[in-house]
Amino acid sequence: MAMELAQLRTLRTVTETLSFTRAGERLGLTQSAVSHQMKALEAELGEPLFLRVKRGVVLSEAGKVALQYAGRILDETEALRERLGSGQPLAGRVRAAAATQAFVHLFAGLFESFMKAYPVVELSFRTTVSTDQTVADILAGAADVGFAALPVYSPALQVSELFEDELFLVTSPRHPLARKRVARVADLAGERLILFERGTSIRRATDEFFQRVRLQPALALETNDTFFVKLMVEHGLGLSLLPAWAVREEVAAGRLVRLRLRGHRLRRTVSIVSLGRSPAHATRAFVEFVLGHRKELQAIARGRA
């Protein structure tokens, strides 16, 4: 049986959902139809593409290679359709990957504007726990674009800087430091800190800062839930280091206080990342749309929007 585009689309969808059943629901197919397509593709390629695990499936090594080629074939097919169907409304799909807090606080309004401008494009979101995972998802074909707050080096990727943000010391209004406008590093000695888990871009930035100033923080807890971090700080259970955009509403409402650290600027550059090869037209349009709103994103990042 010859390989079909439908099989490649199903392969990509199973990879995204990690389940034949969920892939079928997204594609409008039965679970048995998805399974039949994947068995036929495995027979054509002569290699198992998936490993069955307790809660679904994961790609085998052969499956990872097949996914990369499938992504290229599907992207080229879409580009061919766009070339021959010029004059038609822009269609296709874009899968964006980033940390949950970035989607909520930074990009929600921008994505809404994009969907209004390109109503036929399917824009979906994939949350990741770290920049490393975001980059891995793009390289593996599980995402088309991502947002990264760490330097990204890969000849396969196109990286474009979007804006700069800065981490601030965040306290409860009842904390003694809240009366200051600027805190000293010495003020952190003995304070309990609520930090993100290791591997996240914010945690890497804070760990680099602590190493630079030779401070061993006393951890109250670690979590990747931004809302929980802010809630714990608000209730006086510790301090944290957070971007201005993540605490804009709480600072404005008087529930949190943000302070600079004297002599230190904890700045990060946030970039949009995509594959360097010719992307699908919808992905290219999305990247250009986001890059065209750099000033707006910079204002949000500074906590001004």
Question: Can you walk me through this structure?
Answer:
This protein has 305 residues and is of the alpha/beta class. Among the domains are: 1-87, Arc Repressor Mutant, subunit A; 164-268, 3-Layer(aba) Sandwich (D-Maltodextrin-Binding Protein, domain 2), CATH 3.40.190.290. Helices cover 44% and strands 23% of the residues. It contains eleven helices and twelve strands. The chain has helices spanning 5-17, 20-27, 31-45, 61-84, 100-117, 131-140, 201-213, 226-234, 248-252, 281-291, 294-301; strands spanning 50-53, 56-59, 92-98, 121-127, 145-148, 157-171, 182-183, 192-195, 218-222, 240-243, 257-261, 266-275. The strands form three sheets. Strands 3, 4, 5, 6, 7, 10, 11 and 12 form an eight-stranded mixed beta sheet that branches. The protein has a two-stranded antiparallel sheet with strand order 1-2. Strand 1 and strand 2 (56-59) form a beta hairpin. Helix 1 (5-17) packs across helix 3 (31-45) and helix 1 crosses helix 4 (61-84). The longest helix is centred in the first third of the chain and has 24 residues, at 61-84. The relative contact order is 0.14.
Topology:
Elements: H1 5-17, H2 20-27, H3 31-45, E1 50-53, E2 56-59, H4 61-84, E3 92-98, H5 100-117, E4 121-127, H6 131-140, E5 145-148, E6 157-171, E7 182-183, E8 192-195, H7 201-213, E9 218-222, H8 226-234, E10 240-243, H9 248-252, E11 257-261, E12 266-275, H10 281-291, H11 294-301
Parallel strand pairs: 3-4, 3-5, 7-11, 8-9
Antiparallel strand pairs: 1-2, 5-12, 6-10, 6-11, 6-12
